[in-house]
Structure formats: C-alpha cells, structure tokens
Amino acid sequence: MPILDEKNLLEILRKTKKVILLEPNYRRKYIPLGLAKISTYVKNHGGKSIYQREFRPCNEDLICLTSLFTYNSKNVLEEISKIYSSYYFTQNESQIIVGGIYASLMHQDILKRFPKAKVFLGYSKTLDMTPTDYTIDWQVKPPWNEFSHVFTTRGCPNSCAYCAVRKLEPDLWINPQWKKSVDLSKPNIMISDNNLSAQPYDHIKEIVEFIVKHKKRVVFDNGFDCKHIEPKIVKLLAQLKFTRCGMRLAFDRIEEDGIFQKAVKMLLAAGIPKGQIMAYILFNFCDTPKEAIYRAQECIKLGIRPYPQKYTPLNKKDKNESFVGKHWTVNLARAFRHFFLMAGYYTKYDFLEWIQSEKWQKKFKISKKDVELCLEE
Questions:
Q1: Is it true that the peptide bond before 273 is cis, omega within 30 degrees of 0?
Q2: Which of 206, 231, 278, 376 could tie 305 with a disulfide, CB 3.0–4.6 Å?
C-alpha cells in the first residue's frame, strides 16, 4: 500500500526497532517537528531513533524521510534516489516512509519515480499528541533553538487560493495534549497553529494563561486573522510578553483594508509594543503592485513591521524558476521584497522614489514599465 493512513503508519512505527529520521539537506530554521514526534513515539514503543541530514546506513529497519516545501523537491527526490541506489539498502530493503508538505501535496510525484516507497499524507493526531523529542540535536541555530515549537490546533475555516492548509489539515481540531510538547527549560514558545484566531475563545485563553503562568515569551508564527481581533481577544493578548515580533497578523488582501488597521490600533491601545507587532504582506498573487505598496505602507503608518511574502504556487518544484504574478515583473518583485524587508529602507524612503534612484534602479534593473505598474490600479 503506497499511501499510508494513520493506522498503518502507527502500526509500522510501533514495530520498528531502529528508525532513521532523515531530513534532506535543504535550508530551514525550525525543528523538523514531525520527525521529533516520530522519535518519541518509536522510543515509547521500545525502538531507537537516529537523526540524519544525509543517508548513512546503520542497520535500521525503517527510514522516515520528511519533506518541506514543494520547491525543495529536488533535495527530497535526490535523497530517496541515494537510498535506493545504495548497495547497503539493496541488501537490506528497509522500509521508506515519506511525509511532510511536498509529499502530501504532490505524492504522485514521488510514487511515480519510487513506487516501492510509502507516503503519509497530512498529519497524525496521535503523533501531534505525542511529546516532542528535544533530546536529539536537530541542528537548529540560534535563536530558534531557544523555542518550544507547538501546534495546539489544526485546520483553518478559510479556503484561500494561495494557501495549502485546507489540503494538509482539512478539519478543525484542538490538540488536548499540546502542553506535553512544551519544554519548560526553554525560555520561548512558538505557537505554529495555522489559524489560532478562528478557534474558540476558551482555547486561546488556556494558551495565554499557560504562557503567563510559566513566564515564557511567545511568537504566534502564522499570525492572527485581523477579522477575529476583538476586545476580549486583545485583552488576553495584552497579558503576554512577545519576542521576535511575535504578535503577528496578515494584511494579504486589499479587501481587509480598514479591518486590519482597526485591529492593529486595538492591539496598540492595549499596550502591545509596536516593535512586537508584524504583518505578513502577500504579494505577487492577484494583487497589483500599487495595492501591495499600499498595504505595506499602512503598516509603516501604524508603526509596525511589514513582512513581504512573495506568492509561490503550491506545485512549484524548482526554486530557481521565479514565478511572476500577472501584474508583476521579476525585477519589481525582487525590489519590493528587498525594500520592505530591510528596516533601514522602508522607514526612511518612499518606495517609488527609492526604485528610481540611480543606485537601486541599476541594481534591480528597474524599467519604465516597472514604475508604471506601481501606479496602475
């Protein structure tokens, strides 16, 4: 059975004696949370786990290989190919299970090349409820090694065309055991829920009370939906201490104009520092440059940090092939991201003036057409 359901996956994990937790050598900042959950689950059932970034045989009977974004597919496929072509593997025939984002979104891409592999789609509630294994050196660099990484919920009620969450996490679910994945020896907690703000108030209250009780600093990595920012939620959030611009929102659509600004003003009025509020700004999708510039500039007016996020198609497999939205150009998208990502620029200059200055016009090869696009409705 090439595609495993949760029952089959857990049965294999319970039986394994030694598992290689393999993370291809792509760039990433955070702990490979799925592998860290598998590690604990295998150990709880008497097995051993070994973490690797490149396959090295060690008499294992199972290899669990994670995948990140679709544009990391080359790293994933190359690592699987190395395993299948190794002399050791051909003699021992360990099982291979591939999971993660790329595997879940494009599993046929993997099975077409490697029909003997097994693929697990989405996430496992049982593994989510299993404590994270922080005893392994996951090679996470500072400051992210100072964080516990937690999903307290799964799913999102929205169906945004640019987002994969509904495919990866189709149902809304609250993890009743999320606190078990917090390492209280670490000073910070990263809440990675994809839409925590859409969850019941009582659950958000439970999270806030836990963080306050244990005197931790927090990052809400995937941000709050500005539509759900209301007085009772703001009152809760104001009790927290944030780090790394940890109070995160999104201003992804021009349709949220007015709603977004009101939400930020409520947070500021409650005493949350401007320096700890950040807003994701989606661009290069269906938006025009003028719309994206406006959304970013609204953040600046409010005194908070805009974080430009360039849209990438959910089936994009080559990181070197730049996707260009219908209202954008490659050079304009590069310049936009650079300008609003670098605090020293967006706080001092106007974007249109900046891209037309001799230095930056030459660096990003800005054309007359690029400037005109910034003015078009």
A1: no
A2: 278
Question: Which has the closest alpha carbon to 72: 40, 7, 25?
Answer: 25
Prediction pTM value: 0.95
With CA atoms as reference, report the closest residue to 95 among 175, 8, 158. 8
- Domain 3-125: which CATH number of 3.30.930.10, 3.40.50.2060, 3.40.50.800, 3.40.50.11930: 3.40.50.2060
H helices of 258-350, where? Answer: 259-269, 289-302, 330-341, 343-346
CATH class of 134-373: alpha beta
CA pair distance 336, 308, nearest whole angstrom: 8
The DSSP result for 209-244, as a single string, is HHHHHTT-EEEETT-B-GGG--HHHHHHHTT-EE-S
Task: Answer for the pair 59, 30: CB distance below 8 angstroms, yes or no.
Answer: no
Q: Beta 277-283 vs 305-310: how paired, if at all?
A: parallel
Tokens of 82: 């190395």
pLDDT tens-digit profile of 229-275?
A: 999 999 999 999 999 999 999 999 999 999 999 999 999 999 999 99
- Which of the four pLDDT bands, split at 50, 70 and 90, describes residue 1? low
